[in-house]
């Protein structure tokens, strides 16, 4: 999930960075910066540097998932022998809650 979201917002991060580091007057705003980047450097310029960013995110996303599921299992006082089964159940519960949250504005999903 994290890498996909990063790929979607990355072009706006490029525009934000260009606005922050460029000389005053280079761009008149977000739309102008976006248009100039695409016109002068091509659309691929909006994704320049995405690969290293994704490589950096993957270990974080994996560690985040492992720690989150382990903490949930610990909070539920699951024994270490049952932890594997409980963690997979929690992952299924999280997925069903996310679907419910999107379709019913979060009703029926304990947070």
Can you walk me through this structure?
The chain has about 110 residues and is mainly alpha-helical. The protein folds into two domains: about 1-50, no CATH class; about 60-110, no CATH class. Helices cover about 70% and strands about 0% of the residues. The chain has four helices and no strands. The protein has helices spanning about 1-20, 30-40, 50-75, 85-105. Helix 1 (about 1-20) packs across helix 2. The longest helix has 26 residues, at about 50-75. The chain is elongated, with a radius of gyration of 21 Å. Mean pLDDT is about 75; it is low at about 90-110.
List key phrases describing it:
single chain; 111 residues; mainly alpha; 4 helices; disordered C terminus
Instruction: Tell me the series of helices and strands, N- to C-terminal.
Output: HHHH
Unreliable stretches = 92-111
Count of domain modules: 2
Structural class: mainly alpha
The span between the termini is 19 Å
Rounded average pLDDT: 76
Beta content: under 5%
Compute the number of helices: 4
Computed over alpha carbons, the radius of gyration is 21 Å
Described by the principal axes of the CA atoms, the overall outline is elongated
Number of strands: 0
Largest sheet: none
Range of helix content: over 70%
């Amino acid at each position: 999930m994290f890498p996909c979201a990063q790929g979607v917002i990355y072009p706006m991060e490029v525009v934000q960075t260009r606005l922050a580091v460029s000389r005053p007057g280079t761009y008149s705003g977000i739309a102008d910066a976006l248009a100039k980047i695409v016109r002068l450097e091509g659309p691929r310029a909006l994704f320049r540097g995405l690969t290293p960013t994704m490589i950096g995110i993957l270990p974080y996303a994996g560690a985040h998932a492992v720690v989150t599921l382990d903490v949930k299992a610990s909070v539920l006082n699951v024994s270490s022998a049952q932890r594997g089964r409980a963690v997979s159940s929690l992952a299924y519960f999280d997925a069903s809650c996310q679907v419910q949250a999107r379709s019913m504005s979060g009703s029926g999903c304990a947070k």
